[in-house]
Each structure stands twice: as C-alpha cells, then as structure tokens.
Amino acid sequence: MFEILTPLAHDAGALALRHFGNLSQSAIAAKGPLDLVTVADQEVEAMIIAHLRDAFPDDGILGEEGGIIPGTSGRIWVIDPIDGTFNFVRGGPQWAVSIGLWDGSKPIAGIIHAPVMGITLTGGTTDAPALNGRILPPLAAYLPDRGSVGVGLGRAIPAAERLEMLRFLTEDAGIMFRCCNASTLALLEVATGEVDGHIGYGESVWDVMAIWPILTALGAVSTLDWSKTPLTTKLQFVIGKPALVEACRSLAPS
C-alpha cells in the first residue's frame, strides 16, 4: 500500500509547493471565519483523488474540498490536501498533505507529508509507524511534572467551552499546551514525543484520519469511539499516552 501512497503524497506535496508563496489574493477564498481554501488545496485534492481511484477503484473517497465519492468495498480514503491552509497562506512551514484509510469502522492506515519541514510519517494497523523511513519506538511513559499537550480549537465548539478547556489544563491539571493551527502536525508531535497527547475541540475527520492509526499503533489511547462516530461530524476528543488521557478525560464527552 505505501509503495503507492508514499510517492503519491510526495507528488502532492511537490504540487502544493509550486503554489507556496506564490498565491494571488484571487486564489484564496474563505469558507468561514479563519477557514481558508486555495486553488492549491483544490488542485492537490483532485490529483490525489485521481490516483487513488486508479489504484483502488472499489474504495470510496472523502475529501475536505470535494465531499464523498461512494465505493463498494466499505473502505474510504479520507483526504486533507493541505492541512494547515491558514499557515500555508501566511507562508509558514506547518502544513501537510494527509491521506488516511477508514475500513468501515475505524482508521487503519495513514500517511502525512510536510514538504517544507521535510517530514513523512507513515503507518497503521499492519505497518509499523515510521518517520522518514525510521521505525518509531512506542510512546514513553507520561511524566506529570512536565506534561504537555497539543490543542485544536475549532469554531464548532463554543468559545466558552474552548476557554474552559484551556483553563482546566493550566490551572487544574497543570499541563502545558501548544497550538500550531495544523491538526495533523500537532498530532504528529505525539508520535515524536514532543507532547504527551492532543485535545481536539472541533476538528474534522480529515484532520485526524491519517495520524490516528499511527498513534494507536504506538500505544496511544483515546476517548473517541469510532464505531459511533459519523465521518461528517465535528470531533471532541483526547488522545495520547494512557495516563495523560485519564488526567484529561473530563474534557471529552461522556
């Protein structure tokens, strides 16, 4: 599978790079407040879809920009062509191509390619997680005296709830937080050990599908039950090292 996905993700990243830093204002549109889409997002998604349909004709496809293409296999490829479009437009390096695979009940494989940062992360239920080809070790133990999490602050969750989440982290739990405006890269930091977990408040399925099976293969647990989660819903979850997830469990829906 990754003999197909890896060159595809790299080609998609190269296409995005041709637009990076060269977008005119007419090539950028707003889908909502602080939610941007560019011609680069659309071209990259179209290219990925075309290649996936050739390689896996029976599978469905769900793209952030184009909606769902039905399939017959029960599997669905979930694409975020440029996760971190806001960063992309502003000229920042924290954006990535994200391609994940859903088997009908859970995420099972994914690839994330961040071309400016020189990062490619792959893995899933049958493929050991690897960063630029190097097999990653399992997640280390959680150390509460230096706890750190990434946070996603989507507008689908009311502002009061987002602020309460940040208050809980800093005052009640004593955990540092960081936000990079690109969910895939924030979650990638769990895999590399830079943070202990991630708290998602309003992410979409395409933001997390590729990284999710990689993290679970490394030993991460979560509060999210994928068997009860529609692919169209906005997500609210905690994922990461087991002790971290337990410490923050109150932040996720019961």
TrEMBL record:
Broadest EC class assigned to this enzyme:
hydrolase
Q: Does the keyword Lyase apply?
A: no
Q: What is its EC number?
A: 3.1.3.25
Q: Does the keyword Metal-binding apply?
A: yes
Keyword annotations for this protein?
A: Hydrolase, Magnesium, Metal-binding
Reaction(s) catalysed (UniProt annotation)? a myo-inositol phosphate + H2O = myo-inositol + phosphate
Show the PROSITE patterns listed in the entry: IMP_1
Q: Which cofactor does it need?
A: Mg(2+)
Q: Which domain of life is it from?
A: Bacteria
- Residue positions annotated to bind Mg(2+) are E64, D80, I82, D83, D207
Task: Name the InterPro entries for this protein.
Answer: Inositol_monoP_metal-BS, Inositol_monophosphatase-like
Could you give a single Gene Ontology term from the biological process aspect? Answer: signal transduction
GO MF term set: inositol monophosphate 1-phosphatase activity; metal ion binding
Tell me its family.
Answer: Belongs to the inositol monophosphatase superfamily.
**What name is this protein filed under?**
Inositol-1-monophosphatase
Q: Which organism is it from?
A: Pseudorhodobacter antarcticus
